[in-house]
Amino acid sequence: MVKSTFIKLPPAKKELITAALLREFSNYPLQKAQVARIVKDAGIARGSFYKYFTDLSDAYEYLYRQAIAEIHAFIKLPSAYEPQSFYQNVVDFVEQTLCSQYSKLFKMHVLYNESLVVRPFSSKVFVKLSTQNWSAMVLCHAAIKEIIVDPQLKKPVLAHLKAGLMLLTKETK
Fold first, then answer.
1. Are 165 and 133 in contact (CB under 8 A)?
2. Nearest-angstrom CA–CA distance, 41 and 20
3. Total-model pTM
4. Going from the N-terminus, what domains does the chain have, and what CATH number goes with each?
């Protein structure tokens, strides 16, 4: 977890360091990221980096959680299964992500970093969902990943997602 020394920094300095983290992690997978590039870009001493973060993984998780919270903030999970709500959430999330400063970060995350970090949302939350809502969440996340990796697939992936979400409304025997 990010250290309190980072949390207590003046906003301008925190933004400068966060911007350097974003540039690094948007251009390099976590395994190839370098503290040296981050501190040079941010204009801070190497020792300061370790006063703020335990290591590169810690810095990455901080940045990823910030990005996901900002982009994911507007998503509302309906209590009852509503395929159109799920579909619209995905459309909105994809649009917001692809047009955001985090676009390259999310692509790098899906391609290289996803298995290296702690998931921002607990699996325990998802297993408490109804079968329909859980299934819809799985479909939606798979569609989002495909579109982030290759935005040219957006139209056909969204068409498949819409059809798949509608299949979940059919009564099971």
1. no
2. 6
3. 0.89
4. 4-67 (1.10.10.60), 74-167 (no CATH)
